[in-house]
Specification:
It is a single chain. This protein is mostly helical. The chain folds into 2 domains: 2-240, Rhodopsin 7-helix transmembrane proteins (Rhopdopsin 7-helix transmembrane proteins), CATH 1.20.1070; 256-417, no CATH class. The chain has 17 helices and 3 strands. The protein has helices at residues 2-26, 31-49, 52-55, 64-89, 99-120, 137-162, 165-168, 172-193, 196-205, 214-255, 257-266, 284-304, 313-320, 326-343, 348-357, 378-394, 397-417; strands at residues 123-124, 129-131, 207-209. It has a 3-stranded antiparallel β-sheet with strand order 1-2-3. Strand 1 and strand 2 form a beta hairpin. The longest helix is centred in the middle third of the chain and has 42 residues, at 214-255. It is rod-shaped. Residues 276-282 and 353-374 have low confidence and may be disordered. This is DUF6545 domain-containing protein. The chain crosses the membrane at residues 6-22, 34-53, 73-91, 103-120, 140-164, 176-194. Pfam families: DUF6545. Residues 245-394 form the DUF6545 domain. Keywords: Membrane, Transmembrane, Transmembrane helix.
Length: 420
């Protein structure tokens, strides 16, 4: 279980570092991101090096003391990168946040860790525990305290540097990302303070776990998971937003289908030449092209139908239904214009609307049956035409109006055919 937690945390951090490195190579290089990348990579490598399974390789001929020393060195370097990140994130840095001063402190801590390790003269027992020499027990204990103090200092500085961003981040996802990273910092403090038992054990029996125990590795895996989630929550939000937009555009595309089919059946010339199958591309650009092309084709059909619009649509709707929904009025106007076109009936108001569309002063003007487009941008227009298409397909009022129109057409035809 301890190995699983350690290697899982290491894999998560190394994967995050590789992902961040790929992004940095394509974009603008920022010192803050490079510091975070270096911390994630160093911490992930230290988790893997100090895992019990890695230290146990000493039984297969690997120098276990060298593995532990290397793991501690990499882990201390991770703390130095964390301190550098805190310095870069501080808006008004104090003198202690100077990168040069922090680099000096980092080098001093690294040298101190190495010298204390050598002074302790440790050895590995059969259980992969570090056993300090009789004269090196205090040196090993001081080494544990030095690392814990440096880690808590770096984590507190990072917490203080990130805390203002949790309140002033411009968007909700960014705020939640900062909060998750703050939670990871808090877990990191608990993870570091858990080493108090190592200090007590070294002073009592001169023995120290060469690798992290189960609790430490579990806290490390939790810290890594929270840090990765906080770093990626903004990117996930963009991905989910793009997927949600793709779903909405697909829904609008299919919602406009019945209206487009009715117009295309009456006027096949409104359809552009086929341009592939953009719905299967799986990218927002493909579905956007398909949706906007459908919008243009619907509008081309509506322009042709202007000469067949009936000015009495609003009056008919008032008699059939009390609804004054603009989408229903537009849908009814299109449906009646299509029926008039099928019957070959051009209206005087429709001729006036068509003349006005061509820049002429038609006698009928726009007419009460013509409903102008409400939206002013393409996305709003897509939503508007989707509402019109739903009303065109679902409203029970439109079939009643069409039946009334057919009855009037039959009555007019009988009167024309009656002998004088």
């Amino acid at each position: 279980m301890s190995d699983l937690a350690a290697y899982l945390g290491a894999a998560v951090l190394v994967a995050l570092a590789a992902y961040a490195f790929a992004i940095e190579r394509r974009g603008v290089r920022r010192p803050i991101r490079w510091a975070a990348l270096a911390f994630a990579l160093s911490e992930g490598c230290s988790l893997a090096l100090l895992a019990p399974g890695t230290v146990a390789l000493s039984h297969a001929g690997v120098d276990g003391l060298s593995v532990i020393a290397l793991g501690d060195t990499v882990r201390t370097a991770a703390l130095s990168f964390l301190m550098l990140l805190a310095c870069l994130l501080t808006p008004h840095p104090a003198p202690r946040h100077s990168p040069v001063r922090q680099a000096t402190v980092a080098i001093a801590v690294q040298l101190g860790m190495v010298l204390l390790f050598v002074a302790a003269q440790p050895t590995l027992d059969a259980d992969d525990k570090l056993i300090a020499a009789p004269s090196g027990r205090w040196w090993l204990a001081i080494r544990v305290v030095l690392f814990a103090a440096y880690a808590v200092w770096a984590l507190v500085e990072l917490f203080l540097a990130l805390l203002p961003s949790a309140r002033i981040a411009p968007t909700g996802p960014l705020r939640w990302g900062v909060r998750l990273i703050l939670a990871a910092v808090c877990v990191g403090v608990v993870w570091t303070l858990w080493s108090y038992d190592d200090f007590v054990r070294v002073l009592q029996v001169g023995r120290l776990d060469g690798s992290e125990d189960t609790v430490s590795n579990s806290l490390g895996a939790l810290c890594a998971t929270l840090a990765v989630a906080g770093a990626l929550v903004g990117k996930w939000t963009e991905t989910f937003g793009a997927a949600g937009r793709w779903v909405r555009l697909c829904r609008c595309y299919f919602a406009m289908g019945p209206l487009w089919s009715a117009l295309h059946e009456a006027m096949p010339e409104i359809a552009f030449p086929p341009g592939g199958r953009p719905l299967l591309v799986g990218r927002p650009a493909g579905i956007e092209f398909a949706v906007y092309r459908r919008v243009i084709e619907i509008h081309d059909g509506r322009l042709v139908l202007r000469a067949y619009q009936d000015a009495a649509v609003s009056d008919w709707l008032s008699s059939e239904s009390r609804s004054s929904d603009a989408a229903l009025v537009e849908a009814a106007t299109i449906a009646i214009a299509l029926e008039n076109m099928r019957l070959g009936r051009r209206s005087a108001a429709g001729d006036g609307i068509a003349a006005e569309a061509n820049g002429e002063a038609g006698p009928g003007g726009a007419g009460p049956g013509s409903v102008g487009l409400i939206p002013t941008d393409l996305d709003s227009e897509v939503r508007w035409l989707s509402q019109v298409a739903r009303a065109f397909r679902r409203s029970p009022v439109i079939p009643a109006l069409l039946e009334r129109l057919r009855q009037e057409a039959d009555s007019d035809g009988r009167q024309l055919n009656r002998p004088a």
